[in-house]
Amino acid sequence: MHFSPLLLPSLLSLLPTITSAPTANLSPRTCPSTIIKDGSFESGTVPQTSGTTWTVVNTRGFYSSYSLTNPGSPSGGKNAFTVSHLPGPYDGTGIRELRQTLSTCAGKNYSITADMKFESAANNYCSLVVVYPFQTGVGSVTTSSATPGLTPGVWSTTGGIFQAVSSSSLLNFVFRCDNQERNKISLDNVKVNLYSGNAY
Questions:
Q1: Which helix (H) or strand (E) holds 13?
Q2: In the chain, which end has fewer C-beta atoms inside a 10 angstrom radius, N or C?
Q3: Tens digit of pLDDT for each residue in 66-117?
Q4: What is the DSSP code (8-state) at residue 138?
């Protein structure tokens, strides 16, 4: 089909007007600077079973209790979170968990450090476990109450390294005693930071 040059202006006026497309925001996402909240328990708020920062879970046994105790670790502050395990008449195992959902960036590596203390060696029947995301599951680091190099009543450090798979990552501390052992296990100065090395 042939159009006369004289008709082109009229035909062009019938075409839809092309407007500029909106500019996409290509700036990289900023990872949260505050990854963990109240890591040294300095707010003075005792974690609850439905807390918005730390959450306590009574996994097994009904004869353990928890509270904020002081002083905390030398690197922490005035408060520490302490679980007191007492043996039950029917079940010799007590397990309490302390959890917090971290603000993370998927694909970024993070380091976890925390100060911990056992009141006694408890015949090696008590432990503190750090549980964190690992690939499609979880990873963990377990410190038992009679680990060589630990001294009852003296603060030491535990931790781990993980790679976040989403914008939120669950950090979990498991306080456990078996075989009717009684003990006090304390936690303080929990820190989570971006890690420049390999997570695995």
A1: helix 8-14
A2: N
A3: 999 999 999 998 999 999 988 777 778 889 999 999 999 999 999 999 999 9
A4: E
Q: Phi, psi (5° rounding) for residue 122?
A: 50, 40
CA dihedral 33, 164, 190, 116 (to 10 degrees): -170
Cβ proximity of 80 and 69 under 8 Å = yes
Between CA 167 and CA 15 the distance in angstroms is 46
Which position has the token pair 């974690």?
47
Q: Quote the CA–CA distance of 40 and 187 in Å, as a whole number.
A: 8
Q: Which distant-in-sequence residues (6+ apart) come within 8 Å of 1 by Cβ?
A: none
CB 107 within 8 A of CB 99: no
| Contact call for residues 145 and 124 (beta carbons, < 8 A) | yes
Placement of tokens 């996994």 in the chain: 59
- pTM of the shown model: 0.82
Does residue 199 contact residue 121 with C-beta atoms inside 8 Å?
A: no
